[in-house]
Amino acid sequence: MANQPSAANNNGRRHKSEGPQKHIIAFIFSILLTVIAFAAVAAGEVNETFIYIILIGMAILQVFVQMAFWMHMKDRGHIYPIIGILFGITIAITAVVMAQYWVWW
Amino acid sequence: MSGHSHVDGQLPHEPEKATLEGRNKVLGFWLFLGGETVLFGTLFSAFLALRHQVLDGPTEQELFSLPLVAAATLLLLTSSLTSVFAIQAMHNNQVKAMINWLIITVLLGLGFLGLEIYEFYHYVHEGHGFTTSAFSSSFYTLVGFHGAHVAFGILWISLLIAQVFKKGLNVVTAPKIYVAGMYWHFIDVVWVFIFTVVYLMGKVG
Question: Cα(A1)–Cα(B16) distance, rounded to whole angstroms?
Fold first, then answer.
């Protein structure tokens, strides 16, 4: 068993195990962004464009937090996944913008 | 080292990345998620283009109830957290804890699905059927597609739990669980846009 990584003395955890703290922080952050978005709508009677900007801003922020922490995109060695998903996001945004443009302008 | 067995019950720290097959599965799944992004992007674009075309049917403001949407959001968000805990337990080689977190994830997903079914049932009784208007068709297509993804995720993770019971956690089953966790996060990410674009923007006008 010479090629077995030195598992005996450190219980197989050669890397520092990550704790749950950062995921709980990401969770609290997501809840906070959600509450802000719901509150902005519930408050009502404010400038519509302003609320739209808040809503979209909160959604993009929350997706960024979740993809970075929960889908491990901020970890090392994720360059190809990032290229793949960015390609999808580019086409998706193009579809949304062009559908709006062709139908309503 | 054999990829399929581990001599003394020791797994590498990140068993999903221990084999080339596992790493390829993760990469391939990211590319699949890119395709899923395009799918939901086109559904969103159809919904955004048609959401004010209600004919004689009810409008967004009349239909949507924010407390119900908030409850569904909380369930799905929490289930995303519990699925990340399952992956952490897997990385620490705590199979029991991993299975427990996965079961909690599935239960929360079922709760979300139940709320959505109740919501759709309620809407149909309000006169908001699939063919009522362009708005209703694009609404049910977009939100229903997401609900179908949740249902598929529940089935998938349940089957994986059964497989871990039968075969244990090893370098073959670990990538499957990791990939299912990514899928579950992706569903949650799509829901963030659905509650923003469909429900909240619908309430604004």
Answer: 22
Model-level ipTM above the cut of 0.90: no
C-alpha dihedral (B187, B188, B190, B193), degrees to nearest 10 = 170
CA distance A82 to B69: 30
Interchain proximity A17–B44, CB inside 8 Å = no
Cα–Cα distances in Å, from A35 out to A31, A46, B52, B71, B205?
6, 17, 26, 12, 19
pTM assigned to the model: 0.88
The structure tokens listed for A100 are 């709006």
pLDDT digits (tens, 9 = 90+) for B79-96: 999 999 999 999 888 999
Considering Cα of B186, then B190, then B195, then B200, what sign does the dihedral take?
Answer: positive
Neighbours of A56 (CB within 10 A): 16
pLDDT tens figures, B153-163? 999 999 999 99
Extract the tokens encoding A11: 């219980």
Spatial contact of B185 and A71, defined as CB atoms under 8 Å apart: yes
Q: Does B10 touch chain A (CB under 8 A)?
A: yes
Q: Where are the beta strands (DSSP E) in chain A?
A: none
Chosen for mutation from B30, B64, B73, B193 (greatest number of chain A CBs closer than 10 Å) is B30
Residue A12 gets the label, from left (phi > 0), alpha (psi -120 to 50) or beta, of left
